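Support reply, case 0932

Customer input (verbatim):
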Amino acid sequence: MPKYSMILLWSEVDGAYIVSVPELPGCMADGETPEKAVENAQIIIQEWIETALEDGEEIPEPHLYSSTSV
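Our regenerated output:
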């Protein structure tokens, strides 16, 4: 599975960690722990890609970052 960037935040309102995947519009997941939120996000990424392929949509390439480019 491609490695997409993830943003992990704590939501006081939801009482959960929220992960968003900026390269995949609308792709978000949550979890009780940071690890569970990332695990759930990996599942949602795969489902997002599968749905996009079924709908004939283009799949965005992951942005690649390295410690030398920051």
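We compared this against your earlier run and they match. Two observations from our side: Helices lie at 34-54. The two ends are 24 Å apart (CA to CA). Please reopen the case if you see a mismatch on your end.
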